[in-house]
């Protein structure tokens, strides 16, 4: 459905909104491809200086829609898992996420509510992250069923913090995210969109060619540090991590309708996400 992702242009900015609030704006193949299409549309619009990426309602995106993801998994119970086919499928998602990274225009992403798992593969490709003071971001799938595919974590927060939060899957609150340099700005949730739009509109005062050249230069530095190679490994390892015996048993519980209990069991030892005291 086209309305799963909304696109609009206001003044000199384009706003891309993931519009599945009833499903916590979780990501499906259709949503991911639509976001990429909207980025292309904004890139082609000469009067657009910058892009806003957000979620409808109080939650930006809770990551992949696991029920949808598992229902559309190529490998059935009677088939042998094909790692190459899995890699090709997930690489298509990475290419869509990287549209944000490769866009010559600045992209400001809003982090509201929860940004979990696959949501971070998308959002961390943005140039600037604006976060609500009550929001949380984290890669819970590292506890079971996944590894980051775009692998932006290590490049954005460094070795120590990447290990701190990826090995444990712990969520990061807004205060911590700002302290470790993960986000650019923190404000009250009610002011988040206004603050992000104000910043995005300021880019209209800089020639688009200057923005494009500086963004390319900054990004190229990180690519020279091995970003693309990390993405290849991250995408391959993601498939492997989702097909370990433990991960398959966990996924079967979700397929059987035991989603809440499966997630609760994953997070209960850490007392976070939905298991916070």
Short description:
48% of the residues lie in helices and 14% in strands.
Task: Summarize the SSE layout with pairings.
Layout: E1 5-10, E2 13-18, H1 29-44, E3 50-55, H2 66-71, H3 83-102, E4 107-111, E5 114-116, H4 118-123, E6 128-132, E7 136-138, H5 152-166, E8 172-173, H6 174-179, E9 185-187, H7 192-202, H8 208-224, H9 227-241, H10 245-255, H11 259-267
Parallel strand pairs: 2-3, 3-4, 4-6, 5-7, 6-9
Antiparallel strand pairs: 1-2, 7-8
Q: Spatial order of the strands in the main sheet? A: 1-2-3-4-6-9
CATH class: Alpha Beta
The SSE order reads EEHEHHEEHEEHEHEHHHHH
Roughly how much helix do the residues carry, as a percent range? 40-55%
Number of strands: 9
Q: How is the CATH topology named?
A: 2-enoyl-CoA Hydratase, Chain A, domain 1
Report the average pLDDT across residues.
Answer: 95
Unreliable segments (pLDDT under 50, ≥5 consecutive)?
none
Total helices: the number is 11
Within CATH, the superfamily carries the name 2-enoyl-CoA Hydratase, Chain A, domain 1
- Strand content bin: 5-15%
Oligomer: single chain
Architecture (CATH level 2) name: Alpha-Beta Complex
> In angstroms, what is the radius of gyration?
18 Å
Gap between N and C termini, in Å? 38 Å
């Amino acid at each position: 459905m086209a309305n799963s992702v909304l696109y609009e242009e206001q003044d000199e900015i384009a706003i891309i909104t993931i519009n599945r609030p009833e499903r916590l704006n979780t990501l499906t193949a259709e949503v991911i491809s639509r976001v990429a299409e909207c980025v292309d549309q904004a890139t082609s619009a000469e009067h657009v200086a910058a892009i806003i990426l957000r979620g409808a309602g109080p939650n930006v995106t809770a990551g992949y829609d696991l029920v949808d993801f598992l229902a559309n998994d190529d490998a059935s119970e009677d088939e042998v898992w094909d790692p190459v086919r899995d890699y090709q499928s997930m690489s298509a998602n990475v290419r869509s996420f990287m549209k944000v990274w490769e866009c010559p225009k600045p992209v400001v992403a809003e982090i509201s509510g929860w940004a979990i798992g696959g949501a971070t593969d998308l959002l961390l490709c943005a140039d600037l992250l604006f976060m609500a003071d009550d929001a949380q971001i984290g890669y819970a799938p590292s506890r079971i069923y996944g590894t980051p595919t775009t692998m932006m974590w290590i490049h954005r927060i460094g070795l120590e913090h990447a290990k701190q939060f990826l090995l444990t899957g712990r969520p990061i609150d807004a205060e911590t995210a700002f302290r470790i340099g993960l986000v650019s700005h923190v404000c009250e949730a009610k002011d988040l969109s206004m603050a992000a739009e104000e910043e995005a509109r300021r880019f209209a005062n800089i020639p688009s060619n200057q923005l494009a050249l500086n963004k390319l230069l900054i990004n190229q530095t990180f690519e020279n540090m091995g970003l693309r190679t990390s993405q290849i490994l991250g995408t391959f390892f993601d498939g492997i991590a989702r097909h370990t015996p433990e991960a398959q048993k966990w996924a079967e519980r979700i397929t059987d309708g035991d989603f809440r209990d499966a997630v609760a069991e994953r997070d209960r030892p850490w007392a976070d996400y939905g298991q916070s005291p």
